[in-house]
Structures are given as structure tokens and as C-alpha cells.
Amino acid sequence: MTSSTASLPTRRRTTQRLGDRIFSGATLTAGTLILATLAAVAAFLLVQGFPALTANPDEISLFDGGTFWTYVAPLAFGTVWAAFLALLMAVPVSVGIALFISHYAPRRLAQALGYVVDLLAAVPSVVFGLWGANVLAPAIQPVYAWLTANMGWFPLFAPPVSGTGRTLLTASIVLAVMVLPVITALCRELFLQTPVLHEEAALALGATRWEMIRMAVIPFGRSGIISASMLGLGRALGETMAVAMVLSASGGISFKVLTSANPGTIAANIALSFPEAFGLNVDALIATGLLLFAITLVINMIARWIIARRKDFSGAN
């Protein structure tokens, strides 16, 4: 082999077409902009919120004589607790709807349901807030009264029951409805990508349709379900207007979900308190936003770690 022929593969590897170079540069720029934007947001929250963390708590009226951590702890708890309850309700329903659309429903019905799910994701959060405060809360309050009277021994349903229905559970139901189309749409597309050979092999071995789904479809999409759930959780953690309109927050940390004494959420508290805040109070609210940013980042890191552990067992590989 001569030197000219030996250098030919190297020259082919190093020479790129103009379109490839443009695409590579565009993707590199997009990735860099995402990291730069994330770093800029973190820097802004840190710089603007740091004065409230180091100032005398007595100078900040929002703290009401306490410290930053006594002020933000109930809000952080309410944020995580409401989002967890919403995810607990939304994920099973979303996976069920996605499986029905992808493997059970006739083609025309599946297309119609897919359009409805996609349209539901486009509804503004203010509309969900109006629906939750004016329709859902009054309608579900008798159910809350029955649960408290008959299952009050269960800590989550302990009395006293709220007379308006604007409780943490109502806010969680609204959040579940809001994140449901996001999770459903992602799971639906993922289930449709299951290799046909895997499904046909399971059916050929005598499996029923549900057994085929349990053995082939769900293992293939397990990591995708976790990713979709984390996207829904991210929206639930940061949701503002719907929670602010539905939830009647009074502070404190409590696992009870049917009482009128409900912990607030960070995002809703910022939206409600920011118009009247000034000076160090603004910095304090920004500092709570920094904590919400950290909570979201930690949860997503945990989700990525779970996906990395499970990917070896996923059919996607």
C-alpha cells in the first residue's frame, strides 16, 4: 500500500462538507447557549438573593420575625408535596391513556384522542386555575367532608375539613390535570416506537395483549416513562397561577390534604407577594426562587441517575 492510498481514508475523515460543518456548528452553539442561559439564571438568582441571606432578618418584613429558613421551609415543603401528589395521580392515568391510544384504540379513535391530549397541553394555566377554584373545589368539597367523616383516622384525611374545598389536594388534582397531557404525549410516542418484532414474538409465544405489553412495551419504555414523569414534575414544581388561584395557603408544614391550613408553594408565593414587595423583601423572594431552582435541579439529577441505572435493562438499547 502506497503512502497516497494510506492517507486517503484520513483525508476523507478530516474533510467535511459545508452542510455538515454548518450543522455541527449550529448544534454546538445551541448546546452552549443552553448552558450559558442556565448559568446566567443561576448567577442572577444567587447575586440578587444573596443580600437577603446575609441581612438581619428583622429588616425583612416577609420573615415576620423569623429567619429565611423558617420562612421558606413550609413553602419548599408545599411545593414538593403538591408536585408529588400530582405526579402520583397523573403518571398511572397518563400511562394508561398512552397504552390505550397506542395499542387498544381503533385508528380513528386513537387519532382523535391524540389531538385532544395535544390540545389539552395548550390550555393556559389561568384557565385551569379558574376551573379549579370555581368548579372543582365546590364540587369536590362534599367528597372531602365524607372522607374526613369516614376515614379521618388516616393521617392525610384528618379533620378539620375545609369548607371551601380549596385545599392542597385540590391544587394537586389541578396540577395532575395540567401535567397529564405532557406525560401522555411522550409515553404515547415512546410506546409506538416499541420494536414490532418484540411484540410479535411475545404474541407468537402465546401471550395475551396485556402480557405482551407488560413483557415488551413497558420494559422498552421504562426509562422514557421516568423521563416524561420528570418533565411533568418540572412543570408541577414551577406552576404559579393555577396554584395561586386554587390553593388557600396559610403557612405551616402539614401532611393533611383536606384542611384549610395548607402550606403554600414557592412559585405561587412569589407571584402573590412580589407586587407589594420592595427592598430586601424582593431579594428574599428571589432567594426563594433560587431554592426552587436548586430543588428542580436536584430532582432532575436524581431522575437522570435512575435512568442511567435502568438503561441497561431497557429495550431501547
Explain what this protein looks like in three dimensions.
It is a single chain. The protein is an all-alpha fold. It has one domain (55-313): MetI-like fold (Orthogonal Bundle), CATH 1.10.3720.10. The protein is 75% helix and 0% strand. It has helices at 3-14, 18-54, 68-104, 107-121, 125-151, 168-192, 196-204, 209-238, 241-246, 266-273, 280-310.
Number of domains: 1
User: Total number of β-strand segments?
Assistant: 0
The rough form would be described as globular
Give the N-to-C terminal Cα separation.
Answer: 39 Å
How would you concisely characterize the structure shown here?
Helices cover 75% and strands 0% of the residues. The protein has helices at 3-14, 18-54, 68-104, 107-121, 125-151, 168-192, 196-204, 209-238, 241-246, 266-273, 280-310.
Give the key terms.
mainly alpha, 317 residues, 11 helices, disordered C terminus, MetI-like fold, single chain
List the helices and strands and how they pair.
Layout: H1 3-14, H2 18-54, H3 68-104, H4 107-121, H5 125-151, H6 168-192, H7 196-204, H8 209-238, H9 241-246, H10 266-273, H11 280-310
Helix pairs in contact: 2-11, 3-4, 3-6, 3-8, 4-6, 5-6, 6-8, 7-8, 8-11, 10-11
